[in-house]
Amino acid sequence: MPRRRFKQNQSLEERLIEQAMRLRQEAIALPDGIAREETLSRAAQTEAAVQMSQWLRSKGDA
């Protein structure tokens, strides 16, 4: 069975940034508690992934 492939319209960083913003908005709507903390943690992990991706794409100028 052949794999279904499709072209991404946005870069990985753009998709991750949108996901992190969506997760933060979801967290605002949740009451204080475990679900909110887990959602905020997922948003922070997504933001870290954006930073890692940008670092890996950099030319080592740092």
Key descriptive features of the protein:
62 residues; mainly alpha; 2 helices
In short:
By secondary structure, the protein is mainly alpha-helical. The protein is built from 2 helices and no strands. The longest helix has 24 residues.
What are the SSEs and their pairings?
Layout (H helix, E strand, L loop, with lengths): L11 H18 L4 H24 L5
Overview of the structural elements:
This protein is an all-alpha fold. The protein has one domain. The protein has 2 helices and no strands. It is flat, with a radius of gyration of 15 Å. The mean pLDDT is about 90.
Major pleated sheet: none
- The radius of gyration computed from the alpha-carbon positions, rounded to a whole number of angstroms, is 15 Å
Query: Helical percent range?
Result: 55-70%
**Percentage of residues in DSSP E strands:** under 5%
**What is the number of helical segments per DSSP (H or I, 4+ residues)?**
2
**Succession of helices and strands:** HH
Distance between the termini: 45 Å
Residue windows where pLDDT falls under 50 for at least 5 positions: none
Number of self-contained structural domains: 1
